[in-house]
Amino acid sequence: MSMQPFDDRDGVIWLDGQLVPWRDCKQHLLTHALHYGSSVFEGERVYGGEVFKMTEHHERLRKSAEIMDMKLPYSVSEINAATMQVIAANRIRDGYVRPIAWRGSEMMGVSAQKSRIHVAIAAWEWPAYFTPEARLEGIRMDFALYRRPAPETAPVYAKAAGLYMICTLSKHDAEARGYDDALMLDYRGQIAEATGANVFLVQDGVLHTPTPDCFLDGITRRTVIELAQARGYQVVERPILPEELARTQEFFLTGTAVEVTPVREVGPYRFEVGDITRELLMAYDDLVNRREPALAAV
């Protein structure tokens, strides 16, 4: 089945303050972001025509830009309004939103202080990242080719485009070997995250998640922690070594794209899609779709 390319679609994209026909949104070959990775972005989900935690996403976009020494030319409230404008214009009910900010083509070199900062927002229909069957059965993962870098070596707290190249390479490698995703360790050899999602382990009824000290503290991650605690589960944020997977009963991912997705395999380790994972998956689905929440665990 052929995939429709993202540069050849109907609709409009918000670009530097105005709606532009989708196919007309082009940048010059000598744009700084293309050559040096100087861009930041967000991924957001639309449920029933509303963006889940939109302001939190755009506050993080602003923070990422600051870390990358970029000043956004629009406020968070202006980006919020532009996002809703794009969703309405493209008639998105359930989909994905991609705001992005980048350095333009005024300077071509490592230094780019005088380059213009552009901002664009695109949105498209996208009901699910993994199939419903994969979410319920659990996906297969292996360990990644690359590790998350130390805070002293990269701007790890920014959602910056350049930081995702090792994720792309790791995911390509895993998929080529028949897996769905890859589990990344950090520079110390501790469990960090998947290539685009945070991770949780269930050990004897307690949830454990790595301390986000060299990767993003995801918005979905924080939401799931709140959902778990509201249902009486203990959540422990701490360093986690890969050998702990041997005494882990359940394992799942969280992220805007993957939502809550169970994992049944990481390399030689096997897990069940257990009651806690299923409960939090359903609780998250209820929250984002504004359904009445399931009864909390006693």
Structural class: alpha+beta
Number of continuous helical runs = 7
Radius of gyration: 20 Å
Mean pLDDT equals 94
Level-1 CATH class name of the largest domain: Alpha Beta
Q: Number of domains in the coordinates?
A: 2
Low-confidence stretches: 294-298
What would your notes on this structure say?
The protein is an alpha+beta fold and 298 residues long. The protein contains seven helices and 16 strands. The strands form two sheets. Strands 8, 9, 10, 11, 12, 13, 14, 15 and 16 form a nine-stranded mixed sheet that branches. Strands 1, 2, 3, 4, 5, 6 and 7 form a seven-stranded antiparallel sheet that branches.
Write the layout of secondary structure elements.
Blueprint: E1 12-15, E2 18-21, H1 32-36, E3 39-41, E4 44-47, E5 50-51, H2 54-67, H3 76-90, E6 95-103, E7 117-125, H4 132-137, E8 139-143, H5 165-176, E9 181-185, E10 191-194, E11 198-203, E12 206-210, H6 219-230, E13 235-238, E14 250-255, E15 259-266, E16 269-270, H7 275-288
Parallel strand pairs: 8-9, 8-15, 12-13
Antiparallel strand pairs: 1-2, 1-7, 3-6, 4-5, 4-6, 6-7, 9-10, 11-12, 11-14, 14-15, 15-16
Helix pairs in contact: 2-3
